[in-house]
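Hi V.,

You were right to ask for the full record rather than a summary. Here it is.
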Amino acid sequence: MYLAVSLQYPKDNSFVLGVLERKGKVSVSIVNDVSAKTLLGQTIKKVRRGSIVYTDKWRGYDSLMFSGYKHMAIDRQKRFVNSKVYINGIEGFWSFAKENMSKHHDVSPEKFLLYIKEMERRYNNRDADTFSLLLDYVLGVND
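Predicted structure:
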């Protein structure tokens, strides 16, 4: 499994951790700090050990290689790609989320999680028919 992991920093001093399985789905969660302990804990919840995890060079990710993951880091100050190692997919999600959330102008910190989870849902289903998804949900087809 190949994953890209990245952090974004909204206004309210919390952080959003994004995990994108290459050619798969994105998963986002709010974290209160970006310590190695927190990032490792969130990664363990979402990523199978033995996976290759691509990140930027944030030092909090350094413990991944000592915890059963193959860790590849990209210096995003210089580029988003280094041979086969890239984090473009997760950066594409952040761009998608920021563009769509900017339409709502000032998102309150209390509702930020709801908005970012909605962006996750939209991104993961961007090629699907929204009406069919809603109908399946209402009818409980995928439960």
